[in-house]
């Protein structure tokens, strides 16, 4: 090795050594931040030593130090400080009397801490990204306490709630409400133990009074409903079907001996239970994540010149680092050949080691900044008079209005096997002049068929669909909208004007599959309330009379993307690679475009409780589809980005406006405060569920250029706050002879594991493997 090369290598080694020593700086040349814990010696600086000049100098080079400051808006902070925000351990006092003492990370409460309200309420426990998140104890101003698990300011998981009036609840919570299994004990000693739903006693459970009487059985909305047994302390009991409606109530009384209570009325139980109310508890007035921090902006601070990277982020010294790394020659690469192969190999090994340790992550090619996609038009063409399918729409609306309007309300969700019989269908003739049972209309004569009407009526009740709203959405004055192009299967799709329901025309084979699996589908969605499988509301057929006698079968489904949030990105994910890219040029892609597996450039990180529930439900749903020999289904994902600039550029989470620059407060964006408002309003909690309006973080990924079919890209560390909507769709394709032939034919030309048409067992395993790589736990 020449003397010049030796000097160059030494200079490079000095650069690497300095980088390792400076890795805890916010703007190090290798772009990583690591804060070492401070010792007592580090925190003994007095306030006299922290004058404006010294704090300015320290903050300008990005070190962690102790500060005591009265901020511009009157807030007070004392503790560890980094750059322009609390970072480490510190105490923050707001002017309204709220106070936080604990751990901070880049201006957000993160770790353990205690938050106090001026009302006397307090929370002590774990925080994450500004939210009460983890295990903690909340004490309300009137004496209510809750000790247990939290997720994003909501009680979620196991916890014990002690109410000020003496009642106690010990059990599971979901989204701030009692859910699943728990025990509620009233102050007089009576208690209920069993299932809960949306803070109401619902499901199977036992109520025990202090006098020894008890009820074991099913409940609905806090009252006995269904099969149950009431037992007295003397051993006598009553068995029957319970209901608040006297006409539905029936049962048998069994005395314990010769003496009984023949005059006892089951209604006495309902009257007695009316005295036992479930406390709603207190509402947190202001959530910790809603508290804003005042940014320190010293007039004496002198900013060093900073270089803007290609994605708009500020960096320091990156160009200098590249200069030192490229000392072997000019920009054209001259002189690089002067290094012998051993030296080159040693340098490559050292670079790989540093990259693995995270020191040179910022030296990789930086992706271009992300922008909000171009907004698409409202989907679909309105079906007005003169449209080729106008009469079909009228027939459909007439049939549904007739079918739903004449049906009696569902009494019980327990259906007989005969209700699922494919022959269980009702034909109705609709002549233009009308009949005794059908209204006159302006369309041509047609026949209407309802498949398994009792089953779909029960499904609509199970999915909490109001019959009047259902008819109004589909059969109201507003016309349906036909999507511009049919799907791959040749089916046509129609949307209701309020976007709540989607109507899909069906092939005969798909109708047979749905009817075959209908009983299993019904049992599955009934057993798993949070199932991600698409919701079916009705299966019908219109038969046009005349010489052609054409039959049009269609199914009514829920529209997955009917949400209060605008959908910015849509992905259809299967876990296969062959043909799984969009065929549109970049200029034609907008917010309505359905992208595919190889277009996906994110990993979605869910809160721990949500992620655990997600993997459990995906496993259950895939097992159900596998048992029914279904394949070729996909996970449809919609993403709403919560923060974007006025120019339309997406703002990564943790990105802040540089000191001294103006941030437009009127920019049209959905900030974290909007989600806080959603979470703080109990009437809107129901809109957040697994797969629906879920807050999450999306980490951007980049695929390697040398790997054409890399399904999941490499994480970049660039995160975006998002709201997610997702569900499993296209579940009516079984592995029939046509799919087996497709698999055999394509396997000759392509990798058999890359194609969509595979055995349901293999499809389910591949689908889950891929989805569990794309969705991960947010650590």
From TrEMBL:
Bilayer-crossing regions: none
Keyword terms, alphabetized: ATP-binding, Kinase, Nucleotide-binding, Repeat, Transferase
InterPro entries: MORN, PIno-4-P-5_kinase_pln, PInositol-4-P-4/5-kinase_C_sf, PInositol-4-P-4/5-kinase_core, PInositol-4-P-5-kinase_N, PInositol-4/5-P-5/4-kinase
Protein name per UniProt: Phosphatidylinositol 4-phosphate 5-kinase
EC category name: transferase
UniProt catalytic activity: a 1,2-diacyl-sn-glycero-3-phospho-(1D-myo-inositol 4-phosphate) + ATP = a 1,2-diacyl-sn-glycero-3-phospho-(1D-myo-inositol-4,5-bisphosphate) + ADP + H(+)
Region (Disordered): 33-58
Native species: Camelina sativa
Amino acid composition bias (Acidic residues), ranges on this chain: 39-54
Gene expressing this chain: LOC104712357
SMART domains: MORN, PIPKc
Residues annotated as domain PIPK: 382-775
E.C. numbers: 2.7.1.68
